[in-house]
Design a protein that fits this description.
This protein is an alpha+beta fold and 376 residues long. It has three domains: 109 residues, Aminopeptidase; 132 residues, Gcn5-related N-acetyltransferase (GNAT) (Aminopeptidase), CATH 3.40.630.30; 72 residues, no CATH class. The protein has eleven helices and 16 strands. The chain has a twelve-stranded mixed β-sheet, with helices on both faces. A four-stranded mixed β-sheet has the order 15-14-13-16. The chain is globular, with a radius of gyration of 22 Å.
């Protein structure tokens, strides 16, 4: 029978949930309880790409809209998750067709990038590539011996605005709204804790299933070690694994008390429109050019999209980005995966084929800080 790939409709919300739970073999409240920020209700049905056959949905992709703060540039993004096909319909290329449709929809909608949380290499041929990692630091309680514990209280829905203020000051990548923060507090698999006295200045989020796993810790750098020590004492733990976000300076205090660090769950990124992405990140890219002293015009090429652009620092403004003219050889000619690994390098730095100007590669690097609490 013919397949139809389209956007979901509000009246199909219960069917969308049913397909998701059946495909992943989960109980029928799993997604709204565990991911209320990405499965918030019928109004979100239009986020989904669905595959329909004979009037029945047999596969879908959740494309949660998110705003990402990348070096101060606010980018329209999509969190891609819940990708599934019913067991009896697998092996027919449906997932691949839906991912192709998703990429097309997002490009047409002006979305700068999409992200997947996890090591899902089957998405690589659709433009997704492993990008930056958070670091997990193992912090033993004995390494906090000289720190005064901060008394804690459990944070509730009414604390959403205060948590949001802490998060916004931290300049984390996901630019949350109060509604998004409230929905995160509804995630049943996590518990949030903050300082008990005075206004909220710092908080941490821990897994309920593994209480020694801290997925987010944000706030006043002077309080973070004491906040963690207060949490370890409250839960009688001898240490915890703490997710540290690269580039977030208060985490320096905790990293200095770690027994060791390891790479966290990787994030996969897809840049839907290379030219749009360059234009929307012109300010932070220009900052990189200044930092590394690159004043010449640089020509870059996306070999997958067959487009080239000239990048030139215009003082005192940001980077000038224009379609390339003439036949000059590009300074960087990379495919989609290599561009992702250049802008958002995994541990060890950019991973591109051949020899390139290391200073230019460093100048093109953009900050990416992602919390597991926001995962889609």
């Amino acid at each position: 029978m013919a397949l139809t790939i389209r956007q979901g409709r509000p009246g199909e919300w219960q069917e969308i949930l049913g397909v998701s739970h059946a495909a992943f073999d989960r109980p029928d409240t799993y997604f709204p309880d565990g991911w209320p920020h990405t499965y918030p209700g019928p109004h979100a049905a239009g986020w989904f790409v669905v595959c329909e056959e004979a009037g029945r949905i047999i596969g879908l992709i959740n494309q949660t809209p998110v705003t990402m703060d990348v070096g101060g540039a606010l980018l329209k993004a999509a969190g891609i998750g819940g990708v599934c096909v019913l067991k009896e319909a697998r092996g027919r290329g449906i997932m691949s067709a839906m991912l192709t449709a998703s990429n097309h929809q997002q490009k047409e909608a002006g979305t700068a990038l999409g992200f997947l949380d996890g090591d899902r290499t089957r998405y690589r041929r659709h433009g997704y590539e492993i990008a930056g990692h958070a670091l997990n630091a193992r912090v033993p309680a004995k390494y906090l011996g000289d720190v005064d514990p901060v008394p804690l209280r459990r944070l509730r829905l009414a604390d959403a605005r205060a948590i949001l203020r802490c998060h916004t000051r931290a300049s984390m990548t996901v630019r949350r709204t109060e509604e998004w923060q409230t929905l995160l507090l509804r995630r049943r698999q996590y518990a949030a804790w903050g300082n008990r006295t005075g206004p909220l200045k710092a908080y941490l989020v821990a897994s309920k299933a593994a209480s020694d796993r801290i997925v987010e810790i944000v706030g006043d750098r002077r309080l973070l070690p004491g906040l963690l020590k207060g949490y370890l004492r409250r839960h009688t733990l001898d240490g915890a694994s703490v997710a540290l976000v690269p580039g977030y300076s208060p985490h320096v205090e905790l990293a200095g008390k770690a027994a060791g660090t390891s790479a966290g769950v990787p994030l996969q990124i897809n840049i839907f429109d290379f030219g749009r992405f360059l234009r929307e990140t012109a300010k932070p890219l220009g900052d990189g050019f200044r930092r590394f002293g690159i004043t010449r015009r640089v020509r870059v090429r996306h070999t997958g999209e067959h487009v080239s652009f000239d990048l030139e620092l215009r003082r005192p403004g940001a980077l000038s980005i224009a379609p390339a003219k003439g036949s000059r050889k590009p300074d960087l000619a990379l495919d989609a995966a290599e561009w992702v690994r250049t802008f958002f390098p995994p541990p060890g730095g950019p991973m591109v084929r051949g020899r390139h100007d290391e200073r230019l590669l460093a100048a093109l690097r953009l900050p990416l800080a992602f919390s597991s609490w926001d995962s889609v």
